């Protein structure tokens, strides 16, 4: 036993000597960023993640507000937007467009796909008086169909767009952000402001808010409810596609990326208040910030769980959500 202890002692001597030599020469031991710097970085990442969730969740909230449908297939619209832009931009079999026109084309395709789904699926079901529970089950089937169709056409390998992939971060004090991520965040905020302006300052937005508030009264006032619902589906599809492009740009494009984001979209909509577009924006921002800030104390794998825990806590205090309205039952 004495021999083993002696061997361990002699083995440790060079390490101790090197540390002593380093101390004698005045060399500093490198340290990682402090808690304040990591917290600021997590806050920046959370805001970026939150506004991307908000873009996708607004359409989901508007659809629920107009026809009271919980669209389980909304995540697949996010994936299709990202995959469409990838095909036009970076796929070997695609035309090789620059990302900007590819993203615009993907957004237009998302709007057309939303319109096609409404005209081909939901309008006939509404005309037949199909119940909301039955329509919800149809959304699950549509989600599975679209998701596995993307899987067959796109494959399982994650991929990135051809432009803006590797960039150096711009220092913002102790934190940093790449020009790509900063541009995505700013464009997301501008998009949300544009949606708010559409809802508040245009006749179409006024009609959307009227249908969301009271469908029967809006129809009695002369508003073409079917046209409004079609516009909402087009707007929801376009926003979902744009959010998918942004998410694929800051992360990677995968065949199930929208499905993974769907739970956070629902959380943002419920937290903000069902049927409220502004509530979906606020709730999604909270979800994104909480998810990223939780990584300061807990493993990254649990960040979505803490975001959903924040949802539960807020709803215990304010059941109608952040911007939701109290309603009498019965």
Show the helix and strand layout:
Layout: H1 2-24, H2 35-67, H3 74-89, H4 99-127, H5 132-154, E1 170-172, E2 175-177, H6 179-201, H7 203-213, H8 215-220, H9 225-250, H10 257-272, H11 277-293, H12 303-317
Antiparallel strand pairs: 1-2
Helix pairs in contact: 2-6, 2-7, 2-9, 2-10, 2-11, 3-4, 3-5, 3-9, 3-10, 4-9, 6-7, 6-9, 7-9, 10-11, 10-12, 11-12
What do you see in this structure?
With 330 residues, the chain is mainly alpha-helical. It starts with a helix and ends in a 13-residue tail after the last helix. The chain is globular, with a radius of gyration of 25 Å. The protein has helices spanning 2-24, 35-67, 74-89, 99-127, 132-154, 179-201, 203-213, 215-220, 225-250, 257-272, 277-293, 303-317, and strands spanning 170-172, 175-177. The chain has a two-stranded antiparallel sheet.
């Amino acid at each position: 036993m004495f021999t083993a202890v002696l061997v361990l002692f002699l083995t440790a001597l060079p390490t101790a000597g090197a540390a002593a030599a380093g101390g004698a020469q005045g060399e500093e031991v490198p340290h990682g960023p402090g808690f304040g710097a990591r917290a600021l970085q997590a806050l920046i990442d959370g805001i970026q993640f939150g506004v991307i969730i908000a873009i996708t969740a607004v359409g989901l909230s508007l659809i629920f507000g107009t026809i009271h449908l919980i669209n389980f297939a909304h995540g697949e619209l996010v994936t299709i937007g990202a995959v469409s832009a990838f095909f036009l931009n970076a796929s070997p079999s695609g035309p090789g467009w620059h990302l900007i026109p590819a993203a615009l084309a993907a957004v237009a395709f998302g709007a057309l796909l939303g319109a096609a789904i409404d005209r081909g699926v939901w309008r006939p079901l509404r005309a037949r008086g199909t119940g909301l529970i039955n329509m919800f089950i149809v959304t699950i089937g549509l989600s599975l169909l679209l998701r596995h169709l993307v899987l067959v056409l796109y494959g399982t390998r994650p991929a990135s767009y051809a432009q803006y992939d590797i960039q150096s971060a711009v220092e913002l004090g102790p934190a940093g952000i790449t020009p790509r991520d900063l541009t995505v965040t700013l464009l997301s905020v501008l998009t949300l402001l544009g949606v708010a302006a559409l809802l508040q300052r245009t006749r179409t937005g006024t009609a959307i808010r009227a249908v969301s508030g009271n469908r029967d009264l809006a129809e009695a006032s002369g508003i073409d409810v079917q046209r409004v619902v079609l516009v909402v589906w087009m707007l929801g599809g376009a926003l979902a596609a744009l959010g998918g492009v942004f998410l694929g740009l800051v992360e990677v494009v995968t065949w199930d990326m929208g499905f993974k984001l769907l739970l956070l979209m629902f959380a943002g909509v419920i937290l903000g208040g069902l049927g409220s577009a502004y509530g979906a924006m606020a709730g999604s921002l909270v979800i994104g910030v909480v998810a990223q800030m939780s990584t300061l104390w807990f493993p990254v794998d649990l960040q979505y769980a803490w975001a959903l825990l924040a949802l539960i806590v807020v709803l215990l205090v304010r059941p109608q959500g952040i911007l939701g309205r109290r309603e009498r039952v019965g």
